[in-house]
Amino acid sequence: MSTRRKVLLGGAGLLALGAAGLVGRREWLSREPDLLPPLDAAGRALWSNWAGTATAYPAVRAAPASEADLATLLPAAKAPIRPVGSGHSFTALVPTEGTLLSLDRLEGLVRHDAAAYTATIRAGTRLSALGPLLAGIGQEMPNLPDINKQTLAGGLATGTHGTGKGFMALHGEVTELRLVLPDGGIAQCSRNWRPELFHAARVGLGGFGVLSEVTLQNRPLSRVKKVVTLVDTEELLRKWPALAGQHRNAEFLVLPFTGKSALITHDVTTDPVRPRGPDQDADTLMDLKRLRDLFEFTPALRRRAAQAAMAEIPPEIAIDEGWKLLSNERPVRFKEMEYHLPIDQQVAALREVIARIERDAPGVFFPIEARIIAPDDAWLSPFYLRESGSIAVHAWYKEDHDWMFKLIEPVLREAGGRPHWGKLHSLGAADLKQLYPMFAEAQAVRRKVDSQDRMMNPFLTRIFG
Ligand SMILES: Cc1cc2nc3c(=O)[nH]c(=O)nc-3n(C[C@H](O)[C@H](O)[C@H](O)COP(=O)(O)OP(=O)(O)OC[C@H]3O[C@@H](n4cnc5c(N)ncnc54)[C@H](O)[C@@H]3O)c2cc1C
Asked: What is the pTM of this model?
């Protein structure tokens, strides 16, 4: 099979000669970011998130082995107390000079109901472990995000989502939460029991206490067919609203400066298993980077070379259980901004985002991602009572990302977008109040469970005011 990699390299190679100067300039601009010392002057070890956009030197690190240990630890813990999952948020939700709290030891299945397809899970369980664990009891989460490295609690705390008409974000399927509050009290909540806490803390940014257990409404394990096809961006944008409804899960990645997009769909099937092949996305990304390095200042050539390179690429197909196909490996580190727009604003805003990048940000080579998410009723959910179309832009971790704030965020805000809590954005409490009808109610619940603001770091203070 001719891989995307080989073909892209072939296309780029046509004009590679003589371009060494441009590549050299780019290499200099893309040098490795400066690293902070592994220990600070007081001997405290560095913590960093996956992307390198948030760092801290916590005074104390704790990893309680049980909910009881967690309840003993919290009342005396040095503030700010910040729970950490797998550190995959891009925003500074986690950094603390006080107590960094890992729930890595609180993982696994507590109990399940085979008839109702529910399962109660310890909050520190990684989604990658949850897939096989649920498959073992004949269940699956209805939908999954693009990667599965997150912990369940971390994913819920930021409104982590996948894509698909009628499919809610992960927190939409939560029926019950157990939280350890900063005073060491244990709170159980659901739609019927302490509903205010349930509605506020389901997407809680780690500001309402520490989640210890989560009950999920799952569904019977199913098999899906995944298809990745390279298509014309313009044609895709015209068809998208209809197309999104024709597949169980649909999303696309616009490859800027190429006129092409990768359409990714998943549909339930009973066809025989066809395991996914080796991951090609990382190689494709680096090839897009090479095209950028060579043709950054000649967009017409960049487009022509990319189109020639992509002309013969066949669709990628895999058939397997959903938990094996919906999420991907993302070995190439990046920084990301994502906003969730009213669904009818998505295509127009996306056109403007593409136009601005192609006009004013020739250094961008990462794809622009578009997904759809069903509404839910968690007070701090970016999908609160509205079907959403998301738009996400990315930058390689070594490269500048100011353009996201200058060029892209205004478009996404203008379209009524709400930011992903875990991804880069510039909003504070005053803006968020306008976007979240129940923001004041959520703030009031937060003040009640954390009256001394022991879970607030500077970033959360900006968010909650
Ligand atoms: C490569 C990559 C791909 C991604 N893909 C997607 C995607 O497809 N869809 C999407 O929506 N997002 C995506 N994200 C964003 C990611 O899902 C979220 O940022 C998520 O919150 C990360 O989970 P985590 O376990 O790493 O949590 P962390 O980033 O460590 O923490 C996130 C928040 O959870 C809180 N928290 C952690 N544990 C607890 C607990 N026990 N109790 C209370 N609060 C807690 C933290 O305090 C913090 O506020 C992606 C991120 C990366 C880096």
From this structure: 0.95
